[in-house]
Amino acid sequence: MTELKQLTYGIVGLGIMGGSIAKSVRANVLDIPGASGKIFACDINMQTLNMAENGGVIDRLFLPRDADKMLLCCDIVYVCLYPHATLDFMKEHRNFFKSGSVVTDISGVKTLLVENVKNSLRDDVDFVIGHPMAGGAKEGYVNSDSTYFEGRNYILMPQTWNKKESLVLIKDLITAMGFSHIVETDYHSHDHKIAFTSQLCHVIAAALVESAEDENITEFGGGSFEDLTRIAMINAPLWTELFLSNKAELLGHIMNFERQLDIIKKYIESNDAEVLEKYLTDVRRRRMSMGTFVTRETGCC
Fold it and tell me: What is the distance between the alpha carbons of residues 218 and 198, in angstroms, rounded to a whole number?
């Protein structure tokens, strides 16, 4: 924690995730005795930047045209942009990251980054690939929260180029922000599993909403529809990019899901109560064996 207290942090993209990271670092790392670190932020929205600065969350604001000036000062940089924008940002500004700095991201798709990013950064800049498992149905800095990450999972994908001390530093920061569990994996496994636990769920929620006969159907809701479609209040540009960037993995899961729907449909059509009950009993058993992860009501990952 001592080292974290003295560093300068850069946040690129001050939306709900970037804002929550900034607020969490401020509350858990820098607003404690002996801290001398700073938080700088870069965003296209001056109103957002002013809100963060006036609220005491960030120490200095930067518009995109001044991003290079910010990067030269930062020891840790969080790039909180969409996947392609993350890659573009690192390519465009590769010569301006501070020597010895650690750069990390929050992108929900990793193959795109890993296969391109090594050639986008200098050897004296360490890129640690990560994915905080948190999200929200509402967007923007105004919906960010310093407690957003408490009790959540964080996925890291260490690469051969990563320095041990960089991984330790990021893990210390993740823990300080309140994440309760750090999962280490490779980027192929990440994209395969995230396609199921996150992207497929958003596909299903979207399809369920679109299949509704009328928009007043919630008058007959008892919670099931609401629970299943909470994540359908979706950031369309972001999730379009995520779906298409992870197309092969997502399509595979969609086909598997369609097969299970066909099985249930067949049991119902044939009035086969015995087999249907066995199927649903196995569903219950499998779900209970998967365990329970406590989520925030606003989470959408």
Answer: 24
Provide the CATH number for the domain around residue 271.
1.10.3660.10
Domain boundary among the residues 157, 185, 213 is at: 185
168-189 pLDDT, tens per residue?
999 999 999 999 999 999 999 9
CB 221 within 8 A of CB 272: no
- Cα–Cα dist 299/105, whole Å: 19
Whether residues 224 and 173 share a domain: the answer is no
Nearest residue to 8 via CA among 42, 49, 39: 39
State how many domains the chain has. Answer: 2
Residue written as tokens 């540009």? 237
Give the separation between CA 145 and CA 257, rounded to whole angstroms. 34
Is pTM beyond 0.85? Reply is yes
Gap between the Cα atoms of 78 and 57, Å rounded: 15
CATH number of the domain residue 57 falls in: 3.40.50.720
